[in-house]
Specification:
heterodimer; A: about 110 residues; mainly beta; four-stranded antiparallel sheet; 12 strands; B: about 110 residues; seven-stranded mixed sheet; about 50% strand; globular
Chain lengths: ~110, ~110
């Protein structure tokens, strides 16, 4: 079945460092891909998404490109801030526009130090 | 737009008991999904309701059941609670066909002792 694999955390960075969180997926079709963020004590917030190969999702300085050839959707940010400290989840969905379920990776905790 | 509200935020139950968790979906959203997030794990899909009927289910036993109501609210019921049911339960609502996708609530933290 479909699955998502993320790099293990926690990831600890200094403020203004470059961030990469790796995400690879396995899917039978052509899923939509997502990054969600979860701040302590809160639910999930959609950070960005891409619905087809070579699409780049971007939001709040974060970017990820849908790479079909490597089945990857790595999250990047050029300069992290303390406020970016959270848990980041990569996810996929088949048939997204018809209410397809989300399949999540295990999450990667990011801690940014001043 | 009022977002997704879940209640209660926390609760503690004893093994073998039954629990009902509630979710008030975003106005107009006709699809609601429930997820279980164990500590340190990603959310796992439990089931989804569309226009008050279940239209998808994950790998969860029948003691996990749900309801969706016409007023955009929904319930997750769990019978015969087990210790492994301790988790954060997330509700997500969406409008079918809406490319903007799911809005998640903050979750209910269930502890089974």
């Amino acid at each position: 079945g479909d699955s998502v694999t993320q790099m293990e955390g926690p990831v600890t960075l200094s403020e203004e460092a470059f961030l990469t969180i790796n995400c690879t997926y396995t899917a039978t079709g052509y899923p939509s891909l997502f990054w969600y963020v979860q701040y302590p004590g809160e639910g999930l917030q959609l950070l960005l998404k891409a619905t087809k190969a070579d699409d780049k999702g971007s939001n709040k300085g974060f970017e990820a490109t849908y790479r079909k050839e490597t089945t990857s959707f790595h999250l990047e940010k050029g300069s992290v801030q303390v406020s970016d400290s959270a848990v980041y989840f990569c996810a996929l969905s088949e048939n997204y526009n018809q209410g397809g379920k989300l399949i999540f990776g295990q999450g990667t905790e990011l801690s940014v130090k001043p | 737009e009022t977002g997704v509200t879940q209640s209660p935020t926390h609760l503690i139950k004893t093994r073998g008991q039954q629990v009902t968790l509630r979710c008030s979906s975003q106005s107009g959203h006709n699809t609601v999904s429930w997820y279980q997030q164990a500590l340190g794990q990603g959310p796992q899909f439990i089931f989804q309701y569309y226009r008050e009927e279940e239209n998808g289910r994950g790998n969860f036993p029948p003691r996990f059941s749900g309801l969706q109501f016409p007023n955009y609210s929904s319930e997750l019921n769990v019978n015969a609670l087990e210790l492994d049911d301790s988790a954060l339960y997330l509700c997500a609502s969406s409008l079918s066909g809406d490319r903007y996708g799911y809005t998640f609530g903050s979750g209910t933290r269930l502890t089974v002792v």
